[in-house]
């Protein structure tokens, strides 16, 4: 019998074709995918990616808000390999643990604000959110309030892709009729987007109106029914929305008055993206009852998420001494993922990446602000390493372009041809580069994106 022939290394076209024939991509549009397939990425280092044909791109998308320490770090690969060799897997169900899981739980408790000292590891952001939302009912039931389980979220929020996480999220484009969502017991408030606030209203009055809307909802539904509120401190995929000054803190104060648990979805905003480990307290003065994190927690090297909850909640849930917390995942506390999480924190601390992100993020904000002068750009917004530009048909009325214009995808395509990756999202082009980005690389992003916008503007007229 002859040995089977070794497969030749597939050419980029063969990979592209394999993927096109056999993959079902997250958030894909069937038509363009059938026609155009995918960009095949084969290597990454720092802020750069290379495709299968060797073309280099500066990845201003940061993977997907996640490659915080930058790609290609040998010591990270080594930490992952060493842990995989020592103990690739051990579950953490009931009363078993492992070295990296216990150590990372301690590190997260040290880094998280206030009394957030209990960590449930998950497989990513969606499962952290899903667990947090379920834990609202659990906690309120333990407090003798089994009816207090409704959840309040906001329009344009994105909290992940499990059934429950996607039901609390509400980005308009995601709510396709082919899928189903849980409606009962979930309420959505208006998106706190200052750029799209009612004409003639000051930002302070807009903030008052948003808080009043929350109070009116509580009055209508009943504080005895609303158990939790969930928010991204800065809404990421819903449009990089920085709420009006004081908004989050005032919403938190309303939550406290009505015993409503505040869940901060910091899947994007933690681990240095805004220059802090966590943004809720450091930037917005909010002490959440639960924080969900993922992405920058391992800088995307391996999947991991975490739900961090308060001692106050833990004490209420554990008080009885006999209850079962029936939630968790096979890969909760995965030793390899947790080893990556520990190494990620070491690298961030050793290299001062939070301070760097704060500094270079300030420069990024300033450089991008200049793009607001372009005729196509209505708004440039965000903070530090989480920014976007919004295209409009008319800067005065803020009217959007018709769908056929497809301008944000065209801007991203034009930038891609110039060696820059930015993410098209509705009428936005979004950026969240690795924290290790330099000022020279920021200059490249600003100049290239400007050229791409000008090119597309010329094509549109
Ligand atoms: N929450 C927020 C704010 C996110 O941006 C995301 C993903 O982009 C998630 C949750 C879901 O995380 P994951 O995709 O890791 O499940």
TrEMBL record:
<dbReference type="InterPro" id="IPR005814">
    <property type="entry name" value="Aminotrans_3"/>
</dbReference>
<dbReference type="InterPro" id="IPR015421">
    <property type="entry name" value="PyrdxlP-dep_Trfase_major"/>
</dbReference>
<protein>
    <submittedName>
        <fullName>Aminotransferase</fullName>
    </submittedName>
</protein>
<keyword id="KW-0808">Transferase</keyword>
<dbReference type="InterPro" id="IPR015424">
    <property type="entry name" value="PyrdxlP-dep_Trfase"/>
</dbReference>
<keyword id="KW-0663">Pyridoxal phosphate</keyword>
<dbReference type="GO" id="GO:0008483">
    <property type="term" value="F:transaminase activity"/>
</dbReference>
<comment type="similarity">
    <text>Belongs to the class-III pyridoxal-phosphate-dependent aminotransferase family.</text>
</comment>
<dbReference type="InterPro" id="IPR015422">
    <property type="entry name" value="PyrdxlP-dep_Trfase_small"/>
</dbReference>
<keyword id="KW-0032">Aminotransferase</keyword>
<dbReference type="Pfam" id="PF00202">
    <property type="entry name" value="Aminotran_3"/>
</dbReference>
């Amino acid at each position: 019998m002859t040995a089977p022939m070794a497969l030749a290394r597939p050419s980029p076209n063969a990979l592209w074709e394999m993927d096109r024939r056999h993959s079902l991509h997250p958030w894909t549009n069937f038509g363009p995918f059938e026609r155009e397939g995918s960009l095949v990425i084969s290597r990454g280092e720092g802020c750069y990616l290379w495709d299968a044909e060797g073309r280099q791109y500066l990845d201003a998308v940061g993977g997907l808000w996640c490659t915080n320490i930058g790609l290609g770090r040998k010591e990270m690969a080594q930490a992952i390999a060493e842990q995989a060799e020592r103990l690739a897997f051990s579950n953490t169900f009931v009363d078993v643990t492992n070295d990296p899981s216990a150590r990372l739980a301690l590190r997260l408790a040290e880094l998280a604000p206030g009394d957030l000292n209990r960590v449930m590891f998950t497989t990513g952001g969606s499962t952290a959110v899903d667990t947090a939302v379920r834990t609202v009912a659990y906690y309120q039931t333990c407090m003798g309030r089994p009816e207090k389980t409704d959840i309040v979220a906001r329009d344009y929020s994105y909290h992940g892709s499990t059934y429950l996480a996607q039901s609390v999220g509400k980005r308009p484009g995601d709510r396709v009729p082919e899928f189903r969502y849980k409606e009962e017991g979930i309420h959505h408030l208006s998106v706190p987007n200052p750029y799209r606030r009612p004409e003639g209203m000051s930002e302070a009055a807009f903030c008052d109106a948003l808080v009043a809307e929350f109070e009116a909802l509580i009055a209508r539904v009943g504080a005895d029914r609303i158990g939790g509120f969930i928010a991204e401190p800065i809404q990421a995929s819903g449009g990089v929305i920085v709420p009006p000054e004081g908004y989050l803190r005032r919403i938190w104060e309303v939550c406290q008055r009505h015993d409503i648990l505040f869940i901060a979805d910091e899947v994007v905003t933690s681990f240095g993206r805004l220059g802090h480990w966590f943004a809720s307290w450091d930037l917005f003065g909010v002490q959440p009852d639960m924080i969900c994190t993922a992405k920058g927690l391992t800088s995307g090297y391996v999947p991991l998420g975490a739900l961090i909850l308060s001692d106050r909640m833990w004490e209420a849930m554990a008080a009885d001494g006999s209850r079962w917390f029936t939630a968790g995942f096979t890969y909760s506390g995965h030793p390899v993922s947790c080893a990556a999480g520990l190494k990620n924190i070491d690298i961030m601390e050793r290299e001062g990446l939070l301070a760097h992100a704060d500094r270079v993020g300030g420069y990024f904000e300033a450089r991008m602000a200049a793009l607001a002068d372009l005729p196509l750009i209505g708004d440039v917004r965000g903070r530090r390493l989480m920014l976007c530009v919004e295209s409009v048909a008319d800067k005065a009325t803020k009217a959007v372009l018709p769908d056929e214009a497809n301008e944000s995808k065209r801007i991203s395509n034009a930038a891609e041809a110039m060696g820059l990756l930015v993410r098209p999202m509705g009428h936005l082009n979004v950026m969240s580069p690795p924290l290790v980005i330099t000022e020279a690389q920021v200059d490249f992003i600003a100049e290239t994106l400007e050229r791409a916008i000008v090119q597309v503007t010329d094509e549109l007229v």
